[in-house]
Design brief:
The structure holds 2 protein chains of 2 kinds. Chain A is of the alpha/beta class. Chain A has 8 helices and 6 strands; from the N terminus they run E-H-E-E-E-H-E-H-H-E-H-H-H-H. Chain B is globular. The chains are: A alpha/beta, B alpha/beta.
Chain lengths: ~190, ~575
């Protein structure tokens, strides 16, 4: 099979790393060759973060180039807009419609663009924008946005619920397992 | 068992399986997780050292005593450890010794993008370079064999994309070789001129022997291709980009050992292809070697010395079309990293800015004090440079300069190499004011313990170095402690210490807001009725505060209730929550 590419983008601290780890684990159990590339350190301090997840028969490069992503899974609206040029023509954008102001906007040096969902939808892309933050809060914590988004992503995979649940169990602390499962279900059924 | 591992985790696994028993490192992105992961194995003794030089010397000591040992650092850390490195090359080892070094092309989290491969050639120490996690694990085991076979330390070179990418590995069992006997051997281990003169020829012979090994080594492998019009020599993550770009179209010579490099193997490979190209990140290291062999080769005329490469860069530079996706027509505001909400550094920098001081900065989260709206830092070079630089700055200036200039340095960075600068301040008597930003953790690299925290790498309680006593002991009489959340007191104390006619240290003490044990009072409330929209609270650059319709609004999911903005509001619009 042709290598599949998902870019997970968001704001440092939103839990993008856990999402990529969970997905990587699941894909490995399905027998794929998998590579997941992360960013640590300085970039995590509330900055824009990017994680690449790639799988197929044989995956060489750990990174995704422009025009190559089958899907951009974005934890924040502006971050989806930032990385559109990485999307394949006709690719999918799953985006949490939550807006987090970056420092230049907070400081008044820049403006958060308006109507981004509409603008994204005007691209040659399949856009699925929804309020993952509210669903996460309903499930028990704003920190569960990552599992809500995983649930949404799961709609586009033909993996069984057991397989997803196994991967979730391996990826989150037991203390927060139930809440995270709830968040996953909320994303999936929303 | 097949499992996904970060490259760093795979190095740790390889060390474990090879029977490594001693690890000493200093954290640094992207190398940190090697040591954190290896510390999880109970069989391996692992520690954070105060700096990379200490770490390497400790690992060397363990090797001489007879145990397989390891130390890890980032590329700039190898500069700190360069002194022992060059002479350990002469002594060789007893049990195997591996030095892990992780480069950061693209400077995701570094102050430069130096190419560590030059150290291997300069110090005449072999260097292995894995291209994914499976190789990281295998090369760690191979490195111990080479180390003991050739009586040399071995450098294991990682890079951000290998260190921080997960790929598939198969794990094995741990096999611990019998501990080697320590026997006194002055001719080998005492590097005074008479002995070192005898050891240098040994080093040169060893490089020859390693070059011969490189000629037939499996890790320097030729992968055949269908077209002979082009042959590619590559290594590390660039090998993966080449294979992603071209599959098995062109023959590839993949170098797993980057120093010393084979000669005949490269010449033979070159003879089988029409055109020879080297694909490597940063400097033209392999390319220079090829030119020294008299080969006609392309490298840096195609590929930049700056930043990272990728599969598309490789394709494009070798004449193939690449595609790109659509962009939105409007400007997307940048999202630079910022100090976290509740960060104890923020308020301290606000005071420094308010006092209009010249600030010599250092390496850590607090380097973010340099960016808007705080803009409170004048210089940042390397670990410890704030303190030593301040001494020179003040000596070169007048009395007024001394009263307007400070150094800022974190607790871990101060122990790493700030304390030697402070000794210089005391000894050579400059009227310097050093501020230690003590947040009780090594923050930037992701919360590592250090000698001032009272806990070791394994999480056990241990001796806690007392910063006040340390400063007193090196000859600083004026040592003050402040809480950075209390900006009024901070300002008073900083003014006093700047006015004093002798060196002083101010310890700005408050644990990192992200530490799990830190209890926060809960979000601040904003009162839109009282808010006049003056934006005074915006001057601290807190990500939890924004202006909505002319009024300050607090993001309750981010705000921890540090109360710094409350101190800035003259109208009482910001206050403790419910």
């Amino acid at each position: 099979m042709e290598t599949k590419n998902i870019m997970i983008v968001g704001v440092g601290g939103q839990g993008t790393l856990l999402a990529s780890k969970l997905l990587g684990r699941l894909l490995l159990t399905k027998g794929f060759d998998v590579k997941v590339s992360e960013v640590h350190g300085m970039s995590q301090r509330g900055g824009s973060v990017v994680t690449y997840v790639r799988w197929g028969d044989r995956v060489c490069s750990p990174i995704i180039d422009k025009g190559q992503a089958d899907c951009i899974l974005s934890f924040e609206l502006l971050e989806a807009a930032r990385y559109t040029e990485y999307l394949k023509p006709g690719g999918r954008i799953i985006v949490n419609s939550q807006q987090i102001n970056p420092m230049p906007v907070i400081a008044g040096a820049a403006v958060y663009p308006e109507k981004l969902v509409e603008k994204l939808s005007a691209l040659n892309a399949n856009v699925d924008a929804f309020d993952a933050l509210s669903l996460a809060e309903e499930a028990g914590s704003s920190k569960a946005v990552n599992l809500v988004l995983m649930g949404r992503l799961a709609k586009h995979f033909d993996f069984t619920d057991e397989e997803w649940m196994d991967a979730i169990e391996q990826s989150v602390p037991p203390k927060f397992l139930e809440m995270n499962k709830k968040a996953f279900e909320a994303g999936k059924s929303a | 068992m097949k499992t996904l591992m970060l490259g760093n985790e795979a190095v740790a696994r390889g060390l474990y399986e090879a029977g490594c028993s001693f690890v000493s490192s200093y954290p640094g992105t992207p190398s940190t997780e090697i040591t954190e992961c290896v510390a999880k194995y109970d069989e391996v003794y692992a520690e954070w050292a105060p700096n990379e030089k200490v770490a390497l010397e400790a690992a060397f000591g363990a090797s001489v005593r007879g145990k397989r040992s390891f130390c890890a650092m980032k590329h700039v850390g190898l500069n700190v450890a360069a002194d022992p490195l060059f002479t350990i090359s002469y002594t060789g080892v007893n049990a195997g010794l591996i030095i892990g070094v992780a480069d950061d092309a693209g400077m995701h989290s570094s102050q430069n993008e130096q190419d560590s491969r030059h150290y291997a050639r300069a110090a005449k120490i072999p260097m292995l370079e894995p291209s994914d996690s499976a190789e990281a694990l295998a090369f760690a085991k191979l490195a111990y064999e080479l180390s003991e076979q050739f009586d040399t330390a071995v450098l294991m070179k990682m890079c951000t994309r290998v260190s921080h990418s997960q790929s598939v590995v198969e794990t094995g069992e741990r096999v611990v070789p019998e501990q080697k006997k320590y026997e006194k051997d002055p001719a080998k281990y005492i590097m005074m001129p008479v002995n070192a003169k005898r050891r240098h020829p040994v080093v040169e012979e060893r490089t020859k022997a390693l070059t011969a090994w490189a000629e037939t080594a499996e890790i320097n492998r030729i992968e055949p291709g269908q077209e002979k019009s082009l042959g590619i020599i590559t290594s590390s993550t660039c090998y993966q980009y080449v294979k992603e770009a071209f599959g098995d179209t062109y023959p590839v010579l993949k170098l797993g050992m980057i120093w010393p490099m084979p000669k005949q193997k490269i010449k033979d490979f070159a003879a089988t292809v029409d055109k020879l190209v080297v694909v490597e990140e940063l400097d033209g290291f392999i390319e220079t070697h090829c030119r020294n062999l008299g080969l006609s080769v392309s490298g840096k005329e195609l590929f930049t010395e700056i930043g990272e490469l990728s599969q598309d860069v490789v394709k494009e530079k070798l004449g193939q079309a690449v595609q790109t996706g659509e962009t939105l027509s409007e400007e997307i505001p940048a999202r630079p990293p910022v100090m976290c909400a509740g960060c104890p550094h923020r308020s301290l920098f606000y005071v420094l800015k308010k006092l209009n001081l010249t600030v010599l900065g250092d390496i850590g989260c607090y380097t973010l004090g340099a960016v808007a709206p705080l803009n409170a830092i004048d210089t940042t070079i390397c670990m410890g440079a704030s303190v030593s630089g301040l001494h020179g700055f003040v000596k070169a200036g007048d009395e007024e300069c001394a009263g307007k200039t400070v150094a800022v340095i974190g607790d871990s960075t101060f122990i790493h190499s700030g304390v030697t600068g402070l000794i210089n301040i005391a000894y050579n008597e400059s009227n310097s004011t050093v501020i230690i930003l003590d947040n009780s953790i090594t923050g930037m690299t992701g919360h590592q313990q250090n000698p001032t925290t009272g806990y070791n790498l394994k999480g056990d309680p241990c001796t806690k170095i007392d910063l006040e006593s340390l400063c007193h002991a090196v000859g600083i009489k004026r040592v003050k402690v402040v809480d950075p959340y209390d900006m009024e007191t901070c300002q008073t104390v900083i003014k006093e210490e700047l006015a004093a006619k002798e060196p002083s240290v101010i310890i700005s003490r408050r644990p990192c807001a992200l530490l799990k044990y830190v209890k926060h009072p809960g979000p601040i409330c904003s009162d839109p009725e009282k808010c006049k929209g003056c934006k005074a609270c915006m001057n601290i650059g807190c990500p939890a505060i924004s202006m909505v319709d002319g009024k300050a609004v607090i993001d309750e999911t981010l705000c921890v209730g540090c109360g710094v903005c409350e101190q800035l509001c003259k109208f009482g619009a910001l206050g403790a929550g419910k």
